[in-house]
Write the structure tokens for this entry.
Amino acid sequence: MPQDGEDRPSGPAAIVPPHRRGEPAQSGRREGRVELGAFRERSLERGVNPFVYWFFRALFVPFFLVYFRMERIGREHLPRTGPLLLASNHRSFLDPFVIGTLLRRPVYYMAKRELFEKRWQAWILNALGAFPVDRGTGDADAMATARAILARGDCVVVFPEGTRVRTGPLGEPRRGVGRLALETGAPVAPVAVIGSDAVRRGWRIRPRKVRVRVGRALLFPTLQQSSPAAAAAVTARVWACVSLQWEWLGGEKAPREPTAERDRARAVSHAA
């Protein structure tokens, strides 16, 4: 994700990826840039492939409910229309698909660029709503794509930890979710998934119980450009709610956050 201190265009151009404004792409490596841009372009212009998306959903939902005994809690908190950010912990490759079953409309999510190196896999993931992100390189294109998807009223799944955290308590969140919330005005629904990390052993998919819980969506003030402090405060507030869902499901508790971070999160919450 891009650094919070960098300059970005304001107004309508702020939601258009740089490669569509005639600016150099920011995907980090020279090789594969055109392909990454093409996948983001497809997410923006055509969205999910309806035939692929709804076919796989028709397969996934009953399979998850039966084989994984999937339990979905709090779905009534999710708005049926309008932009929505779903902020979740990340334990398994299965998480985006589990979270996608919470709503009866397509969801989009960032996936690491390595998953787009095989053409057949990249095509399927892109058809299901994934668009590439170059983790750790300040990927302005991926953030701009997420803002544009939210601006048109769709849903975006964000994993604030930035990568999978396989064991123990939740990891530390990055402030990108706070920036998206502030710069788009989209409500943020805190989500926790538990049990998905026990599903896979090598290539074997085992029948382990998976549970997912959603809290009430959070609203924050809309800013044309967020500051690092504001983004960090919003992220802390969102992550505290994700942690609440996680602990309710029986997840291992994370160490208490510093008092200063907690006070900033409360201040932003009251301001909202």
